């Protein structure tokens, strides 16, 4: 079974509370095994970190790294120690220019998502790579 929690009303940045609530709901109400967060922040957020800690006891969490290439460190929650960070590759298995480096993170996964066509339009990004990585665990 796949569940989806909406964390933003538009293409803008999600609210910290929405991500925290979505993680908590996934654990307490849906009893999920895998959580994907296709969003992030450049600074850690304590409320989200606490929700991740609660979820980590029984769940695997994937999170997109970011789409700023090697210019910035991994976004949070992908940078959290108990979260599998996800980057992107092209069709040759090479790191996409917008994908972050693993930064020696113990849990870093990549998925082919450069120039894919999921909804009749070309798209790319680690936000698409994270659910592909999470789906590979099902």
Automatic annotation (TrEMBL):
Keyword DNA repair recorded: no
Record-given protein name: Subtilisin-like protein
Record InterPro entries: Peptidase_S8/S53_dom, Peptidase_S8/S53_dom_sf, Peptidase_S8_Ser-AS
Alphabetic keyword roster: Hydrolase, Protease, Serine protease
Domain Peptidase S8/S53: 13-102
Hydrolase recorded as keyword: yes
Gene Ontology molecular function, alphabetical: serine-type endopeptidase activity
GO-annotated biological processes: proteolysis
UniProt-listed PROSITE patterns: SUBTILASE, SUBTILASE_SER
Pfam families hit by this protein: Peptidase_S8
Family: Belongs to the peptidase S8 family.
The species this protein was found in: Lentithecium fluviatile CBS 122367
Cited CDD domains: Peptidases_S8_S53
